[in-house]
Description:
- This is Terminase small subunit.
- It comes from Rhizobium leguminosarum bv. viciae.
- This protein has helices at 6-18, 21-28, 36-43, 45-52.
- By secondary structure, it is mostly helical.
- The chain has a single domain (6-52), classed as Arc Repressor Mutant, subunit A (Orthogonal Bundle), CATH 1.10.10.1400.
- Helix 1 crosses helix 2 and helix 2 (21-28) packs across helix 3.
- The protein is globular.
- The mean pLDDT is 77.
Amino acid sequence: MAELTPKQRLYVAEYLKDLNAKHAAVRTGYSGKSRANGNRLMRMRLCGRRLREP
């Protein structure tokens, strides 16, 4: 199974700060023009699994 990219790992860390997918995506460097980036990352199986880990 593929691992998260460094940018995706950073997204997970940013998301945990305020639980806001859009803001985490923007802080991580994804385009701020689209709300879809945060939602797309949240739907990714690996990101979701990483968020559920202790």
